[in-house]
Amino acid sequence: MSAAQNTLLSSSRWKRWEYLLWALALAVPLLLPSHALIVNEIAIVALFALALDLILGYTGIVSLGHAAFFGMGAYSAALFAKLVMPDPLLGLLVGVASATVLGALCSATILRGTDLTRLMVTLGVGLILMELANKLDWLTGGADGLQGVVMGPLLGQFEFDLYGKTAAWYSMTVLLLVFVVARRFVNSPFGATLKAIRDNRLRAMAIGIPVNSRLVVVYTVAAAVAGAAGALLAQTTGFASLDVFEFHRSADVMLILVIGGVGWLYGGIVGAVVFKLMQDAISSITPEYWTFWIGLFLVVLVSVGRERLIRPWTWFGRGSSRDRP
């Protein structure tokens, strides 16, 4: 076995603290039942951030339109529950499938042009879908949203309660499963080629890596994960509105990755926890100006550096000058 293969295998192996971390996360709805709703929100946002990190952190593709796939998954799952059958798992698969198809179709938009071009094109896709959802009010409910979405019991046994415990465990389980698959994905030889493309696309092409096909695959996979996050949101809230397509969805998840770090799967999870807890705490104190304080936190984080903010003794240059991913 080569050294490169050994490195990939060691990167994909789980550490002991990770088992403890995920066990604790799954136990939170039981230990703190009054916080189950926010746990559900954090899990969904973390899954959405993980989707964006696959293309931003591991491939270097900047996107401001990832909400298009999030919204597609949300509306597909909600429509399936309302018009076909309310089974949560089948609805989740439908949401993932629809977002995957959309991602495969939209992947052509990232193959050419500069980062600025991709930003505008990806943003445009989300705006187009939002306007379509608004105009097709006979199907989507238009500006009023798709209401009356009632989900059946999970696995035929666990009802979605008002306190959100079932929803929290459902979303956390999906997040864990996707995280496990994504970890194997980015630490595989395929994932190594993605990092090569991120670091230097021309060099990757020169050594024979099929850059375009790699970009299509990872963009489609990221769209599928974003669709799963959107489907979970619609299923656990019983509602889908135009809000799922709006620009702030893509902007928020970008900020989450700024907080947690890109190119590190736990970055999206850490960023989601910090962002949602800050949002919940600050908005309860000052509902009108919570965005100001989060913006100030981001300015300090970027100015000081994530590592220096966590370890203050590095502020005066005695620590590493490089921020971790």
Explain the overall architecture.
The chain is mainly α and 325 residues long. It is globular and about 55 Å long. Residues 311-325 have low confidence and may be disordered. It has one domain (3-246). 70% of the residues lie in helices and 0% in strands. The protein is built from 15 helices and no strands. Helix 9 packs across helix 11 (211-237).
What's the overall geometry? globular
What is the alpha-carbon Rg in Å? 20 Å
**What is the helix content?**
over 70%
Strand count, sense and barrel status of the largest sheet are: none
Question: Key terms for this structure?
Answer:
single chain, 70% helix, mainly alpha, 15 helices, disordered C terminus, globular, 325 residues
Brief digest:
The protein has 325 residues and is an all-alpha fold. Helices cover 70% and strands 0% of the residues.
SSE diagram, text form:
Elements: H1 3-12, H2 16-31, H3 36-56, H4 67-83, H5 88-106, H6 115-135, H7 137-140, H8 165-186, H9 189-199, H10 201-206, H11 211-237, H12 247-260, H13 265-285, H14 290-304, H15 306-310
